[in-house]
Design goal:
By secondary structure, the protein is mostly helical. It has a domain of 133 residues: Glycosyltransferase (Alpha/alpha barrel), CATH 1.50.10. The chain is 52% helix and 11% strand. It has 13 helices and 12 strands. The strands form 5 sheets. It has a 3-stranded antiparallel β-sheet. A 3-stranded antiparallel β-sheet has the order 10-11-12, covered by helices on one side. The protein has a two-stranded antiparallel sheet with strand order 1-2. Helix 2 packs antiparallel against helix 3, helix 2 runs parallel beside helix 13 and helix 10 packs antiparallel against helix 11.
Length: 372
């Protein structure tokens, strides 16, 4: 007689665990569908092909195509994530690689031209300088590609090593021991001491050190994290500017219109990437810098499109390029569940198809939040 309750409880347990498994499977299935649809939307809206290879169109409303090294790096990172899920082939990545190879500044300089312009699918202009952020992403993507496709690992590894050497040689300030914003910011340039804080990517520097065996990258990480800590302490918000000057151990935010626009010294369109750049690091000091910023955002009723370093909103509008990096960082820490809820619109809303920067960062975050 006592066997019936035992059997009944066993059946109930099986039903319960079966239900839980079904729910988990459904959640994972929905997440996979979301990631795939987002990737396909992004590729359809922004990826183009021509005789040079495959590139990311960064001016979706323009008649003639413009490609940026920044966008190309993002495109390679997204394609790697898609390939890990079986949605992109090695050939598709290789076409991006071929475009990068054809867009290098010269045979002796593997840094990518920061901008290329086309008319009727023919290249009509190619800048002869680089932007450091794009080449950092490209180098990281090449290292990832060498793992994803072992048969081509030698090619991608060699390309990554050459690119890292070029960044070290041409994008490094030997005085303040930080990365410059590009190879045009030479020693005899007034911009030699200028940094773009969103170029500080501690997890990349760890990867580059392990990959190359060069302690330069570990030292660069140490110096870069110190710079982050200094900038973080300058304001209660912990917000960090788009650009800053570093000279004689002093770090000063750029002034209005000194570099690119009125928000050069604010938490603007460059700095908005910082939460995403820092969240993949396990470094304690990096996490402290990130947490201070995230605590500021946690108190904000709405995440708007930019802030002064003291925390005053620059706009009443929200945008994907500001919210996506915050969402990514929030997903890494349990303490920021409210930010996950408030910023999830970034991945639940369809891509607009006319906002290269916001749509691309949203796609990156959608893919990288559940990295394969």
């Amino acid at each position: 007689m006592r066997k019936r309750p035992a059997i009944m409880w066993s059946l109930l347990a099986l039903i319960f665990f079966g239900y839980v498994a079904a729910v988990v499977f459904n959640i994972n299935d929905n997440q996979t569908k979301l990631e795939k649809e987002t990737y396909q939307q992004w590729r359809s809206a922004y990826v183009r092909e021509n005789d040079e290879g495959t590139f990311v169109k960064t001016n979706p409303k323009g008649k003639n195509d413009i490609s940026l090294s920044e966008g190309h790096g993002y495109g390679m990172l997204i394609t790697i994530q898609a390939a890990k899920r079986g949605w992109a082939s090695e050939e598709e990545f290789n076409e991006l690689y071929r475009y990068y190879s054809n867009s290098q500044i010269s045979k002796d300089n593997p840094l990518m031209s920061w901008r290329q312009k086309f008319e009727n699918e023919k290249q009509v202009a190619k800048e002869t300088t680089n932007a450091t952020d794009g080449d950092l992403d490209i180098a990281y993507a090449l290292i990832e590609a060498s793992k994803q496709w072992p048969d081509r690992s030698t090619d991608y590894q060699q390309a990554a090593k050459k690119l890292l050497t070029a960044i070290k040689t041409r994008n490094y300030n030997s005085t303040n021991k930080l990365l410059t914003v590009g190879d045009w910011a030479t020693k005899d340039s007034e911009f030699y001491n200028l940094i773009r804080p969103s170029d500080i990517i501690p997890s990349y520097f760890d990867t580059f050190a392990a990959f190359s065996g060069d302690d330069f990258w570990r030292t660069l990480k140490t110096n870069s994290v110190k710079a982050l800590e200094t900038m973080s302490k300058q304001h209660k918000t912990g917000l960090i500017p788009d650009f800053a000057w570093v000279k004689d151990a002093t770090i000063t935010p750029a002034k209005k219109d000194q570099i690119a626009n009125a928000n050069d010294g604010n938490y603007g369109a460059n700095a908005c990437r910082i939460p995403w750049r820092l969240a993949s690091s396990n470094d304690k000091k990096v996490n402290q810098v990130l947490s201070k910023m995230m605590n500021f955002f946690l108190k904000e009723q709405t995440i708007t499109e930019g802030y002064t370093l003291s925390g005053q909103p620059l706009s009443s509008s929200r945008s994907k390029n500001f919210s996506a990096p915050i969402l990514y960082a929030a997903k890494q820490k349990e303490a920021y569940g409210d930010l996950v809820d408030s910023q999830s619109w970034v991945v639940s809303d369809d891509l607009s198809g006319n906002d290269y920067y916001g749509d691309t960062l949203a796609t990156l975050v959608t893919m990288q939040m559940n990295q394969k």
